[in-house]
Amino acid sequence: MDWTDSAAADEARRGNQQAFRVLVERHSHAVFRLAFRMTGNEQDAEDMVQETFLRAYKQLQRFDGRAAFGTWLYRICANCSLDLLRSRQSRREAQPPETGNESVHWLDRVAAREPSPERLTQSSQIADLLQPALKRLSATERAAFILRHYEGCDIEEIARTLGVQANAAKHSVFRAVQKLRRALEPAWGAIR
Q: Where does residue 85 rank: exposed (0-12), middle (13-18), buried (19+ CB within 10 A)?
């Protein structure tokens, strides 16, 4: 059956499991992308997708249709991912710093089609700086930046997703861009 998101949500509220399955299939890739970009880890992203849809299913009665269903899911996913990042941060602060290197950067797994050797070198230099720079952003700044620049969400959508005012969302994106710009500045001189 070909439901709109709103119709499928209504059917799922009435207990139609097929309708909820349609919503999962329709939105799981976008939710995974958001979770992956926020957590930087494929396994964590898969866990966040499961957690997002589990919470959505349990809270389906709360979906009132004021926002698009996808925006509502993004908010749940962003909150799940923020919770995970915050819990890890608090655990990291309680433990001594790690000395090992990450074996694979998450950006290295997102490959372009047949990039030139120069492009590979540039991408590698930027990835080496971007990954730690993203991790240094606050969880809210990272979420706002990813929603804006990776997912293409507008400020109003970001505000609804993060549960903040539009000015706060805009400020979070601005702060994230400024911090990343400062972190990536050394790479621009090297690639020019």
A: buried
